Amino acid sequence: MDWLSNIYLGCFIFGLIFTVAAFLVAAKEAPGWFNSLVVFLTWFGGIGFTLKLLRLSDLITPGLALLGGLAVSLSVRLLVARVGLPEGAALTDQEANSLAGTVARVSYSFDAKGQGEITFSKNGVRRSVPARSIDGHSFRPGSQVAIVSVENGLVLVDDLDRLLAEAGATRWSSTARS
């Protein structure tokens, strides 16, 4: 084997090891760029090594391996962004810390205990999660709320209109004309 084959094989094995480790450890805390890098390296190495075994030119193989790795990595990233996590999936600690102040829409009515479900978009990913009103208030579907905090995976929300009024802001209306 020549040096280029060794590079491809090394990238493939490195990527494969980290992919298997991610499934075993459920590395959902890893940053998105790291996961994309692992997918890229796995496919870059696999495609490059396969093309070398097929005795394709050393001038063409790196370009095709690079394009293949980028295409698969981008496809996986877009798929994860579109599909996201399953409905009601637990929030990671990193997500929970960044949610305060996010505006959400009530998707299922809050019951007498002030519990229901909200939907919000953050970083291009749409999520539906269980939520509870901080004061036991009930909300109808379609109501806008603001995420106040996250406790034990349960999102705590408050009425957006009330928070805006307390801050001295007037309610924005999509039908208002200047």
- The count of strands amounts to 5
Terminal CA distance:
71 Å
Tell me what portion of residues adopts beta-strand conformation. Answer: 15-25%
Structure class: alpha+beta
Biggest sheet, in brief?
5 strands, mixed, barrel
Number of DSSP helices?
Answer: 5
Radius of gyration: 23 Å
Task: Describe what is shown at a glance.
With 178 residues, this protein is an alpha+beta fold. It contains five helices and five strands, in the order ααααβββββα.
Can you offer a commentary on this structure?
- There is one protein chain.
- This protein is α+β, with helices and mostly antiparallel strands and 178 residues long.
- It is 45% helix and 21% strand.
- The protein has a five-stranded mixed barrel.
- Strand 4 and strand 5 (154-159) form a beta hairpin.
- Helix 2 runs antiparallel to helix 3.
- Residues 173-178 have low confidence and may be disordered.
Keywords:
disordered C terminus; five-stranded mixed β-barrel; 178 residues; 21% strand; alpha+beta; elongated; 5 strands
What topology emerges from the helices and strands here?
Blueprint: H1 3-25, H2 32-53, H3 61-83, H4 93-97, E1 103-108, E2 115-122, E3 125-133, E4 144-151, E5 154-159, H5 160-166
Parallel strand pairs: 3-5
Antiparallel strand pairs: 1-2, 1-4, 2-3, 4-5
Helix pairs in contact: 1-2, 2-3
